[in-house]
Amino acid sequence: MFSETLHDGTILLDGSTLTEFADIRDAQSDLAEWRLRGHATIHVAGPLSGESARDELDALGRRTVRLNIGTLIAVGQEARILHLAAEHEGSWDGESLPVADIDSAYDEVSRLRGDGVVVLVTGSSEPGFGELVSRLKGAA
């Protein structure tokens, strides 16, 4: 995973190739460190594959709240459990956003990004998260 400061001051953490629960959990910890340094934080995540994917998504959604990550954007119907777990874990109100697809995720991040905002994009069993990173960087 690498970080890059974009033209508008947004800091992008590219975890788009991460699809394992443990790796995504570690990336969330990195994002939480940025929050502790005073940055607004956004995690964009999609569905995972595998036998325990539902439980792992539930755990990641709840962990997002526990780490006090500012915004969770759950991409796709299968990732909705991320959103639901975050909503059930805490007193969040609007900090967790379920979106239908990568285009919608891009729109939400574009609305929230700016100087000092840190955006983590983690991979998924769904294609397109690398594309999202490219679009955020202005390459697409």
- The main sheet orders its strands as 1-2-6-3-4-5
CATH class label: Alpha Beta
- Counting helices, strands and paired strands, the structural category is alpha/beta
Portion in beta strands: 15-25%
Write the H/E string, N to C: EEHEHEHEHEH
CATH topology: Protein-Tyrosine Phosphatase, Chain A
The fourth-level CATH homologous superfamily is Mur ligase, C-terminal domain
- Report how far apart the termini are: 20 Å
- Mean pLDDT across the residues is 92
Detailed description of the structure:
This protein has 140 residues and is α/β, with parallel strands linked by helices. The chain has one domain: Alpha-Beta Complex (Protein-Tyrosine Phosphatase, Chain A), CATH 3.90.190.20. The protein has five helices and six strands, in the order ββαβαβαβαβα. α2 links the parallel β3 and β4. The longest helix is centred in the first third of the chain and has 16 residues. The radius of gyration is 13 Å and the shape is globular. It starts with a strand and ends with a helix. The mean pLDDT is 92.
Please outline the helices and strands.
Elements: E1 2-5, E2 11-15, H1 21-36, E3 41-45, H2 53-66, E4 71-75, H3 80-89, E5 96-99, H4 102-112, E6 118-122, H5 129-136
Parallel strand pairs: 2-6, 3-4, 3-6, 4-5
Antiparallel strand pairs: 1-2
Helix pairs in contact: 1-2, 2-3, 4-5
Outline of the structure:
This protein has 140 residues and is of the alpha/beta class. Helices cover 42% and strands 20% of the residues. Strands 1-2-6-3-4-5 form a six-stranded mixed sheet, sandwiched between helices.
